[in-house]
Specification:
By secondary structure, the chain is mostly helical. It contains 2 helices and no strands. The chain is elongated and about 50 Å long.
Amino acid sequence: MVLLLAWLGIFARISAPINKRLSAAAYAGDVPRDAGALQERWDSVIVLRAVIQGLALTLLCVSLALR
């Protein structure tokens, strides 16, 4: 549960605002001037988010197996 909360915190603080900006620009048919910086920021946390989510899933499977 702690890992999933950490994942959610990273998503809410970093990924969600980037998603909102890029989605709004796409709907408007525009490209943000800082699109490259937004993509770099997104890329900087994607591995961390994937590892945290993978660990959470693994621990969930282990806990189910031990029941």
